[in-house]
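Dissemination and training. As part of the outreach component of the grant, students in the summer workshop were shown how a complex can be specified as a set of sequence lines and then modelled as a single object. The example used during the hands-on session is reproduced here so that future cohorts can follow it. Participants entered these lines:
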Amino acid sequence: MAQQNALEVRQLRKQLGHKQILKAVTFAAVTGELVAITGANGAGKTTLLRVIAGLARPSGGEVLWNGSSLRLDSRQAAYVSHQPILYGSLTVQENLEFFGRLYGTADPAKLQELLELVGLWLYRLEPAAVLSRGMQQRLAIARALIAEPALILYDEPFTSLDENGREILRQVLENRRPRAVQLLVTHALEHLQGLPFREIRLEEGRSVPKEAAHG
Amino acid sequence: MKHALRNPLCWGLTLLVLINMYVIVYYAPVEKTMGLVQKVFYFHVASAWVGLLALTVVFGASLSYLWKRTSRSNHLALASAEIGTVFISCTLLTGPLWAYPIWNTWWTWDPRLTTTLVLWFMYAAYIALQGGGASEVRRRLAAVYGIICFVNVPLVFFSARWWRSIHPVVISSQGMALEPPMRAAMFFSVGVFSLLYIYLLQLRLKALDLEERVQRLKAELFV
Amino acid sequence: MAEFWRRIWILYRKDLLEEFRSMDHLWSTVVFGTMLVFVFSFAVQLADVSTRQVFPAVLWVSIFFLSVVALQRSFAKEKESAVMDALLLACGERSLLFYGKFLFSFTLLLLLEAVVVPLFWIFLDVDGAGVNLGLFAAAVLAGSWGLAAVGTLLNGITSQLPSARLLFPILAFPLLIPLLIGVVLCTQGALAGQGRSTMGWLYLVFVFDLLFTILPLVLFDYILEG
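and obtained this result:
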């Protein structure tokens, strides 16, 4: 039985330079939930994810994980960005191994399973730089899943994926549901077709929950 | 200009500076061996002390910034660095002015002078890093750098001193006979220069604050 | 605690793997190093100065310039592909990144010096009689340690700023003065065969190294905050 975790974001503010990107963001999510974060360009969606992940410091408000505001332990949170975040000169397998070892889980069988899950097992000895954007994105997803994170943050993950890749991601989202809190920033809610999710819209830096039982 | 004329601190400071000039030129006795040129020493030492004081302020403000992240701390550090550079430049310029007529060399690797030179480069690098001081990233990084610099200064001073102790340099302020009136004049100069520093700091802080307010208003308008 | 060292080792190995996979950067830095040797030796010869006397100064100035070039790449890969985010999440503790990168930079510097130092020895015609080799080696090692530490620390800073190529040497120079004084005088003493009296300078370098190895433990969190 997976542990039940609760993420709570309270009155989060973030100022970058002279601009208040996030003004008052408040919401909560628990294990088993998939929360879609939508909003116009520049509304602060990426900033919100980065602050929650601990990659940026909030200017005010707090992010609570199971009630305490300690910075998330590195093994608890994973981040899938829309940029390729890999080491180009290392092979697919080496990239995964490196991050796996950092997280303390480099079991070869497990890595193989992950690579097969995202359809990259055949390409495991290719340098990451020669992969297409879509394949790099799939590798990034595999990398995020290595440590069985309890909180997964996706920043426009569907952007560079083809139909095959999108299907893989949908499977991952559904597969991870019972074990993680998943936050997903996206422009295109149609990609989440078939999956139950809750929507929170960011407008002018404030969170607006949308009554929705999509899926 | 009008604002300055109305400011009592400005008047008071002007008076003090004039008194300081008098003290240096007339009150302090002419040094035995060095003559009139020695009087540059009062400017030289006072500027150097303020230069060091300014770095201490940068250090304190940087710590405060890393802790509290207020604009104020950052502005204080930046303003202090800018003004510190000015005073350090004075020190570096008055050094040769004093050294050449007396010892016939432009530059002496006197440990204090060497440290002052390094201080100049630290300030310059710090200001370059701040890059205007608007970006939160730059402010944070500059604060870290400010702290590193301050911690490094004792190392710089002592290494320069030990170096000079094995190649003793005849040129140093030890060669001067400091009678009590001269000591008094020196302390008075240091005091006046410090007040000048504080005044300039205030002016610069106000300017930086205003600039920030304008930027913030602009950002809100053009969204 | 063991976990800390284990992760540093993983980071270190990854950097080595990357660097040796495409040797072109390493190669061009070695070439740059030999160029420095040549230019300095040539200039010194033209000036008809006692080469043994200028050896410490010339050697260390070259190593300083070499390190500016070689160490600029510390965080380059991470900057290029925005991997930093993933790395930060995987590490948690920011100072891990410092120590991993530091070890890598230190190794790199030692490799470069293995080429450059003997070359200088030869070109500046330093005769080995009466030289305290142990002390000389210690000076090179300790000096490189300090350079790698300061270099990694400052690269952490400049890696956050997009257009900061010239900024690194500007930031480094004032900080490295005590190190420069220490290693040059220590090398000088080693060349003259002095042992005891030169140890003081080596201790100065040790203190410098210690400071810049411990300081990042606290400060690196603030540098890589984001």
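The two ends of chain B are 35 Å apart (CA to CA). Students were then asked to discuss how this feature might be tested experimentally.
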